[in-house]
Design brief:
The complex is a heterodimer. By secondary structure, chain A is mainly β. Chain A is built from no helices and eleven strands. In chain A, strands 2, 4, 5, 6, 9, 10 and 11 form a seven-stranded mixed β-sheet that branches. In chain A, strands 1-3-8-7 form a four-stranded antiparallel β-sheet, with no helix packed on it. In chain A, strand 5 and strand 6 form a beta hairpin. Chain B is an all-beta fold. Helix content of chain B is about 0%, strand content about 55%. In chain B, the strands form two sheets. In chain B, strands 2, 4, 5, 6, 8, 9 and 10 form a seven-stranded mixed β-sheet that branches. In chain B, strands 1-3-7 form a three-stranded antiparallel β-sheet, with no helix packed on it. The relative contact order of chain B is 0.34. The chains are: A mainly beta, B mainly beta. The interface between A and B is medium-sized, with 25 and 27 residues.
Chain lengths: ~120, ~110
């Protein structure tokens, strides 16, 4: 059974860097983009970005200047670093696999494996 | 950036009824890149539909998706008690945009 699980501090101070790790089990990390998403209270889900096992990354342009993601294939872990956090970064953070599918001859993508999520609050 | 707007915000129905959720894109999109998710309290989202109309593995056939251009629909043909949850549409692209969600509640 493919699973992903987030870990990291639940409280981060304003202006500091939020760091989370996601551990993958039940599958290889090869061939997929492994991502981070978040949902602030009362707001919509937001994709932060993803990282391939090659180390290549794809970030949401709105967060790109503050985001760094990396992959440790030997540990089957990938990580998120979000710098200069503010209260607006308070959210439930999920790691997820962006699976690929074939639809009418097109290759498309969707998040098919999700972690339970970890709530991160930013304090002043 | 393309914005996805879902309607209604809340849908109040009874088990056995038909549920229809709408997702409108701010401009025409490739329907193959439209997905739907279900989210129950305390759980992560679950992928239901990809490519606008293809069910993910183990998703019951009472769930169906359709649409093209800017307008997309998720339908649950006959509601089961476990179907009451939030539903989100999502577009694959530069920002992997999500709709704001529809809350399906028991009437």
């Amino acid at each position: 059974q493919v699973q992903v699980q987030e870990s990291g501090p639940g409280l981060v101070k304003s202006s500091e860097t939020l760091s989370l790790t996601c551990t993958v089990s039940g599958t290889s990390t090869s061939g997929y983009c492994w991502g981070w998403l978040r949902q602030p209270p009362g707001k919509r889900l937001e994709w932060i970005g993803c990282v391939y096992d090659t180390g290549s990354t794809d970030y949401n342009p709105s967060l790109q200047s503050r985001v760094t993601m990396s992959m440790d294939t030997s540990k089957k872990q990938f990580s998120l670093r979000l710098s200069s956090v503010t209260a607006a970064d308070t959210a439930m953070y999920h790691c997820a696999r962006e699976g690929y599918f074939y639809s009418g001859g097109y290759k498309t993508y969707a998040f098919d494996i999700w972690g339970q999520g970890t709530m991160v609050s930013v304090s002043s | 950036e393309i914005v996805l707007t879902q309607s209604p915000d809340t849908l109040s129905l009874s088990p056995g009824e038909r549920a229809t959720f709408f997702c409108r894109a701010s401009q025409s999109i490739n329907s193959h890149h439209l997905a739907w998710y279900q989210r129950k309290p305390g759980q992560p989202p679950r992928l239901l539909i990809y490519g606008a109309s293809s069910r993910d593995t183990a998703i019951a056939d009472r769930f169906s998706g359709s649409g093209s251009g800017t307008d997309f629909t998720l339908t649950i043909s006959r509601l089961e008690p476990e179907d009451f949850a939030f539903y989100y549409c999502q577009l694959y692209g530069t920002s992997r945009t999500f709709g704001q969600g529809t809350n399906l509640e028991i009437k």
